[in-house]
Amino acid sequence: MRTRKIALLGSTGSIGTQTLDVVSHDEHIEVVGLSAHRNIDLLEEQIKKYHPKVVCVMDETKAQELSRRMASQNLAVEVTCGMEGLIAVATLEEAEVVVTAVVGMIGLLPTLEAIKKGKIIALANKETLVTAGDLVMETAKAYNVPILPVDSEHSAIFQCLRGNSHQTVSRLILTASGGPFRDYTKDMLQNVTVEAALKHPNWSMGSKITIDSASLMNKGLEVIEAKHLFDVSLSQIDVVVHKESIIHSMVEYIDGSTIAQLGMPDMRHPIAYALYYPERTMTSYIPKLDFTKMSNLSFEAPKKDLFPCLQLAYDALEIGGTMPAVLNAANEVAVEAFLQREISFLQIPEMIHEVMNRHICISKPSLEEILEIDKWARVYSRQEVAKL
Ligand SMILES: NC(=O)C1=CN([C@@H]2O[C@H](COP(=O)(O)OP(=O)(O)OC[C@H]3O[C@@H](n4cnc5c(N)ncnc54)[C@H](OP(=O)(O)O)[C@@H]3O)[C@@H](O)[C@H]2O)C=CC1
Ligand SMILES: CC(=O)[C@@H](O)[C@H](O)COP(=O)(O)O
Ligand SMILES: [Mn+2]
C-alpha cells in the first residue's frame, strides 16, 4: 500500500485526536501538517509523535510560545498562526488529503483554498457546507476534487449510495440520537443545565456539537450538509430519531429497498473510511457490533415542536442564499452564550429565529457577501445576547 500524506486541521479536538489514533495504527499514513486553536500542550505532544512539517496555532501568543518551545528542544517544525497559518497547513504541497476537523465556519476559507490546490477533502467540519455549500461544492467540481464525508450520517449515506445510480434514490434518512433531552417535556427543558446538555448519550464529542445534538440543531445542520453533499431535493431528506445510534443513516431507493449502514458509535469508523477511500482497510482496534447482544433498535419521529432548531434549519435551507450562513452564525453565537451561561437552553432557538427574521436574504451570494453576512449575523446575535 502506498503512503498517504495528510494535513489535519483541528488536531487537538475530538475528531482530530481520533484521526491521529487511526494514523497511529497505520504506517501508511503520514502527517505533514497539524493545527490547534490554543491547546499547545497537546499540539507539542502530537508534534513529537507525528513529526509534521508545518503546524498552525490560531492564537498568536500561543504560537509564539510553541515556537520558543520547539527552538529550545531543537525540533524542526515551522510554526504558523492565524488564518494565514491555517491556510498554509491546508495547502501544504506534500498533503494529498486535508482532514477538516476544526469547529465552526472558521473552516471555510482553508477548505476552499485546499480545494483550489487539488487536495482531497475529508470533511468533518459541517459548518463549512452549511455556510457556503453551493460555493464549496461548485469549487470542488471545478477543481475535480472529491469531498469525502467524515460526519457519521453522511459517511453512512455515502457508503449506502455506492454502486447505485443517483436517479434511483428516493430518500435519504438521517438518524438522530435525539440527544440527552429526547424524552423531556417543554417544562423540563426550561431549566436544563450546561452540564446536562453536555452529556451526550452515545458519543463523546467537542462541546459545540454536543450542544447542537441536544437542541437538534446538529441534525438540522446535517440536513443542509446532506443536501449539498448528495445533491437531492429538500423533500428527499428525512430525519428519524434512533436512540441507539447503531444505524448511522439509510438510503431508500425507488423500488422500496432501504440500505442502512450499521456500526458501533465510534468516529474512527467514518474517519478510517474517508482516509482509505476508495479502499477499505482492517481496523481491528475499533470495536465491532455484536448482534447477539443487541436487543432493540428503536425509531420515532423527531419532536420538532420541542426542538425548533431542526425546523429552523429546514426553513433556512428552503429560503436558501445567505440564510443558512445566518442560521449557522447565530447558532455559533447562541451555543457559546449558552455554554457561558448567558442564555438558557430554550433561548438558543429563540435567538436564531430572531436573527433569521431580521436578515434580508441574498440569493446566489459571492464568498465576500457570505463573509460579510456572517459578520453581521454574529454582531446582531451578540447584541441579542446582551439584551437577554
Ligand atoms: N466530535 C465528533 O464526533 C464529530 C464532529 N463533527 C464535526 O467536526 C468538527 C470538529 O468537532 P469536534 O472535534 O467535536 O470539536 P472540538 O471542539 O473537540 O475540536 C475543535 C478543534 O478545532 C480547534 N479550534 C477551535 N476553535 C478554533 C478556531 N477559532 N480556529 C482554529 N481552530 C479552532 C480546536 O483547537 P483547541 O483544542 O486548541 O481549542 C480543536 O483542535 C465540527 O464541525 C463538528 O461539527 C462531525 C461529526 C462528529
Ligand atoms: C457522531 C456524529 O456524527 C455526530 O454528528 C452525531 O450524529 C451526534 O449525534 P446526534 O444524532 O445526537 O446529533
Ligand atoms: Mn453526525
TrEMBL record:
Its cofactor is Mg(2+); Mn(2+); Co(2+). It holds the Pfam family DXPR_C. Its EC number is 1.1.1.267. 1-deoxy-D-xylulose 5-phosphate binds at K126, S152, E153, S177, H200, S213, N218, K219, E222. Mn(2+) binds at D151, E153, E222. Keywords: Isoprene biosynthesis, Magnesium, Manganese, Metal-binding, NADP, Oxidoreductase. Residues 6-133 form the 1-deoxy-D-xylulose 5-phosphate reductoisomerase N-terminal domain. It is an enzyme of class 1 (oxidoreductase). GO terms for molecular function: 1-deoxy-D-xylulose-5-phosphate reductoisomerase activity; manganese ion binding; NADPH binding. InterPro entries: DXP_reductoisomerase (IPR003821), DXP_reductoisomerase_C (IPR013644), DXP_reductoisomerase_N (IPR013512), DXPR_C (IPR026877), DXPR_C_sf (IPR036169), NAD(P)-bd_dom_sf (IPR036291). It catalyses: 2-C-methyl-D-erythritol 4-phosphate + NADP(+) = 1-deoxy-D-xylulose 5-phosphate + NADPH + H(+). Residues 262-379 form the DXP reductoisomerase C-terminal domain. Belongs to the DXR family. NCBIfam families: Dxr (TIGR00243), PRK12464.1 (NF009114). This is 1-deoxy-D-xylulose 5-phosphate reductoisomerase. It comes from Zhenhengia yiwuensis. The lineage of its organism: Bacteria, Bacillati, Bacillota, Clostridia, Lachnospirales.
